[in-house]
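Memo to structure team: turn this sequence into structure tokens by end of day. - J.P.
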Amino acid sequence: MSLVLNIARSYRAPGKVVTGLAQGDLREPQVLFFGLLACGLIFVAQWPGLSRAATIDPSITFEQRMGGALFGVMFILPLLLYGLAGILPLGVLVRGRPVAGLHVRLALFWSLLSVAPLMLLQGGLSAFLGANAAVSAFGFVVALAFLYILGAGLRAVLLLAPEQTSDS
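Reply from structure team:
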């Protein structure tokens, strides 16, 4: 199924989408692509707000703001995501089953890619409305959608993990 249709389906049945992706011919480059595409879309989502901020306060130019956002989103965020993906299996292991790191990264990166369209909308709102309560409330909605999709994705990959048997 196409990427856009899977993103749209992720709001209705995120577990099924992650399961479908995990059961296919999943490899690390595909998961890395999801993560980097999400970071790229998040970077683009910052542009309208950065433009508005540069117009209001010209002491820091738009290009300087873009450079900082580029460094933060395209270089630092992927490192943080991989760090988080390294810690998440420990939390899932508490449920009693070891889960493949690739599947955990899939759930994390896919959930971030799934909420990227909402982040693009939030970027547009921040350009038109500025920093106010409505934009902050929408950011909270984006965070909740991310946690919902991530939780369902982790639950789906946990069900994919083989049962642990004890030979006593």
